[in-house]
Here is the input.
Amino acid sequence: MAAARTICRRLRNAQRYVAKFPRQESLQYELLTAEAFSHILNLPFCTADDNGAADLYCVKWHGTLAPLRLAPGGGPDATVRAYDFHILVEATMRTGANQWIREFAPAVEHGNEFAGSEGIRAEEVFVILVCPTVGRYTHTTISNRGDIRPALIPLEDSVVAEILDTCILGLTVQHADVRGLLERLWRHVVRGSADVNRYTDSVRGEVRNWQAEILRSDKLLFVGLKAYQAMKKGMGETNRAYFSVSELWQRLARHATIRHYYKLLGTTLHLRDIEDGLRGNKLAYEIGPRFHDALFTLVCKEDVAGRLRRFIKAMEAI
Here is the structure.
């Protein structure tokens, strides 16, 4: 499976990407969508080729890679077994009324059958309907269901890409965060906006709000790690063991990922973010001031890793 950033880029331009595979467009779209959810939830990815061998928590695409075959009818395209909830993924490039009639209508029964076969409550199952554009008939039909569970949530592939982008940048995104987002999105379905465009706009707005919440909570850890990386690189270039915060700011302010992160937050990188990120996450020692600047030297990577191992060991002992 390709790296998360590659999958995100392909999903943002899904129709152009699948067009590279004549007569396999639907298959590649299904596979791409399933791979995206694997990265969103940081779960192992498997396919029907695995003959039932899969981790307890995983994303399974029900198609095969050898040979390449679509997921068979009569079930979802992919099944996501997350912590405390499940997602059934249905992906189609169809538009218009056929989007619902030919592709998404069976998803209702798939959700009910899955909950029954697993012996779980319908509230623990989300059916995500992924497509390039949500059809008017799809939106109207699902809205008319009201608050019946399992939850059916139609999402444009570009929105799924935005969720994936957030999970790539957010270093501590939990499955509970993703479930919380799905519950929030389902409320937009239940409200039953009369216009499909209003629905898709409200969904995008909700995802942006969730994205900002995730990135704000992870900001100092993210910046701390990027500053740590910049110090490591700087040590190799200059043979120095210490760096000022302003020097690190100059390096980080040009970093494409940092710029993207802060653009999504709607703010800019400050010197204090770097100080707090290094100090608060114990990634560097402050060795003294330099004019109006703090000077930092790195904590060795083995020390940081050892601290994390101790934390994991303590968690396992609980």
About this structure: The CA atoms of residues 136 and 197 lie 9 Å apart. The radius of gyration is 22 Å. Residues 219-316 form a domain with the Arc Repressor Mutant, subunit A fold (CATH 1.10.10).
